[in-house]
Design goal:
The structure is a homodimer of 457-residue chains. With 457 residues, the first copy, chain A, is mainly alpha-helical. Chain A contains 23 helices and six strands.
Chain lengths: 457, 457
């Protein structure tokens, strides 16, 4: 795909410079909204409004939705009121809400002024829901059917009203806005009897979500049940909107990126990498870097406390990085596995004993293997090959025993911290490698110097 | 959801023990296949076949597909040939292929024996595609329309043949299996004229994928274009199948988990956490742990090389963990941001200069901030508060200068290694924190002792 877009971008630029507008239009209408948006991102912003005006209404709206907020703002500022009205007219309500949330206040004012009264009311209604709630990502444009309708009447209603709906494939049977059941277009089309009431073929075991539910939970339900859309009900159990699978896919992608950023010790950002400048990156990265740097004071204090021992046995210092890195890696393996399983809903707090026992067994296996490897490496490479006669069998034993203990401590902390964090209502992703490394570092140094003190001096 | 299932599991167990089969059946048919499967996972395996036999055919198939391979195998081994035939009959071809891929050889033989000849041929055809290719996850059950059909004829064909198709909502207009265009049921239902030829309303700008394309690429295209399904063509450009959005969501989830596991220095696993035993976890974790432990030999050698300097200035040792951790954290922030952006297709190799420049600027900002903080901390906490008079202004300067250099090196390596890995055809996720930490550790120690040597001795 990438190659195709690169060539396309060149072609469009040449055509635009040559003012070949009718060719340009013919080329653009062969493309998909997402691709047109991608090409627009690459060309000189000055040309975008010209190109955009060449698009037919529907493709223009599709393209508009897929563009980055900066480009959307640029276009809106260049639009006449009539042009703005046309674009907003074609948007689905949930996309209009997303747009309003991204734009500065004066642009929002113009958008709301150009929206139809009905749409303006719906936008305002949706804007009231908290960020990341089901209400904030739902759309109010769904097909509702009355329980008294027959299959034929239902199909007729879909044909009459479907054009503005975000999906027609799942329809909602309601009485006084109370959701009685769902019926798919597939069921309607494949129904044996056109005169059967929709209540006869509808599915009454409706799975719905509340407007205040977390968007990530909703997205995971759509993914789990393979639904095209999920109905959203308010606290009185009345149907207020639907969330479609495409929005769920976007939410899952966004939430996963956030989790990954947190696991790597960054504050989550809603801009993508290329759109963030160095200052943005700095702001998202410095808090954890600074906090973790300051907390490394403890490891420093531990080393200072054993300074005299280290001065007598400088060879011990050489193994500090290896012990710390192995501890950090062991801990991050456990914590990252657990954080991912938590976010996929595979684990809950009640599983902690099972998880801890599994990690202890794994730690014993890993610790034993690493210690044996490490002992061999120290005696063969460090002592014999490098001829470092300061290293005795006892030194090697101290290092390897510390290694095994470090792995055990790291795996236990790595698995239990994220689960406890979630239980306490914190985000488990924050309890990932950088945070755990700091704790494991301190503990492993204490073990190291403790054993060294006992055996070597 | 979790709470609901827990109660449900208890209810079912009590009903099963009391042999209340008709109540059990009434309860089960109110549930969704995914939920029934989740409940089955929790109860004693002995009871599963009994409960499964209570399910109506369609729900039984839905449930079967959602169960873990171990439970599927247990059920199949307990099935009579007739029961097995009924379940396979109800499966979509792509689900049947997934099943065959998971089962041991003797179970596969029984499955293929009980499948209809047509289905058996399709399963065998799909099994030939390489793992993780578009061909391996597609289904051959789609609605195809002939170009000569009118809208009314197309709708009639969907109503006649749609029942066995994985989706009816996107239909494919083909001539001699060559794909001419796609038409959605929405377009058909909303068409103004029932006698218009489908060729008139179909979308000719078809976006398709090749059977050999990577499944992750396909899933990302579905997510990008918000399509319900993507057509899959062979090397002769003939339509051979489709991939639906629900399979794409599963692929994205799976591939993201793999990426996260690799980033944390684990071999990716296709079992989920609770299903893996300690031995599985050990096998996936020990290779990177061992490799990284051995590679820490270099850091050890560097320290040994400066042993005499360290013996004279033991205070330098106390800052090693802080420098190493800050380097590791800085590097993993950069590498993880880049790896995620690469896997979402937001970055390509040509962006490397732009990325490197952004990381240099960020590194300067982070490095400067951390150095100032660190200088203050060393002079105030370590020297004045703790009264460690070994620490001079020059020592603090050496530490802070190393800190700034380490952050710079870490960010540069962190951003460039994953991009180069991808360019060379390796998986960028492997170039994440643990790997980069080892390199950054060694470089930062060299800088540290180099400057210390120049300024302190």
């Amino acid at each position: 795909m990438a190659e195709r877009l690169v060539t396309m971008e060149h072609t469009l630029r040449v055509l635009l410079e040559g003012k070949k507008y009718s060719t340009l239009k013919d080329v653009l209408i062969t493309m998909n909204g997402a691709d047109v948006a991608a090409v627009f991102e690459e060309i000189d912003p000055v040309g975008i409004p010209k190109l955009f005006r060449l698009l037919p209404k529907e493709l223009a709206a599709e393209t508009f939705v897929e563009m980055e907020p900066e480009v959307q703002e640029l276009l809106i500022r260049g639009f006449s009121d009539a042009e703005l009205h046309d674009v907003i007219e074609e948007l689905y309500v949930d996309d209009a809400v997303d747009l309003v949330e991204e734009m500065p206040a004066n642009v929002v004012k113009r958008i709301l002024a150009q929206a139809d009264p009905q749409m303006r009311r719906e936008i305002n209604d949706l804007l009231r829901y908290p960020e990341n709630s089901a209400g904030s990502i739902m759309t109010t444009e769904y097909v509702s059917l009355r329980p008294g309708m027959t299959v034929a009447e239902a199909i007729a209603r879909i044909r009459r009203t479907g054009v503005d709906k975000e999906t027609i494939y799942t329809c909602y049977v309601t009485r006084d806005r109370k959701l009685l059941g769902t019926v798919s277009v597939k069921d309607l089309l494949l129904a044996a009897d056109d005169d059967a009431p929709v209540t006869q073929i509808m599915d009454e075991n409706v799975i719905s979500v509340n407007t205040m539910d977390d968007q990530e939970k909703v997205a995971q339900m759509l993914s789990k049940y393979n639904f095209l859309a999920l109905p959203v009900v308010d606290n009185d159990n009345l149907l207020v909107g639907i969330i479609t699978f495409d929005d769920a896919m976007d939410v899952l992608e966004e939430e996963t990126t956030e989790d990954i950023e947190k696991m790597a010790g960054m504050l989550p950002s809603d801009k993508n990498y290329l759109r963030s400048n160095a200052w943005d990156l700095f702001k998202h990265r410095i808090p954890w870097l600074a906090l973790l740097m300051v907390s490394a004071t403890f490891t420093g204090m531990i080393i200072t406390g054993f300074e005299s021992a280290l001065a007598a046995q400088v060879v011990l210092t050489a193994f500090i990085p290896m012990l710390m890195d192995t501890g950090g890696n062991s801990g991050s393996q456990a914590s990252v596995s657990i954080i991912r399983a938590l976010s996929l809903g595979e684990l809950e707090f009640a599983d902690l004993p099972k998880v801890a026992w599994k990690e202890i067994q794994t730690a014993v296996l890993c610790g034993a293997t690493l210690s044996i490897l490490c002992f061999g490496k120290i005696m063969l490479v460090d002592r014999m090959l490098m001829g470092n006669t300061d290293i005795t069998v006892i030194t090697a034993f101290v290092v390897c025993f510390t290694m095994a203990m470090t792995v055990l401590v790291a795996k236990l902390i790595g698995c239990s911290l994220p689960m406890c964090a979630q239980k306490l209502g914190f985000d488990p992703a924050v309890m990932a490698s950088p945070f755990i490394t700091t704790i494991v570092d301190a503990l492993s140094l204490l073990v190291y110097f403790g054993i060294a003190n006992a055996l070597l001096f």
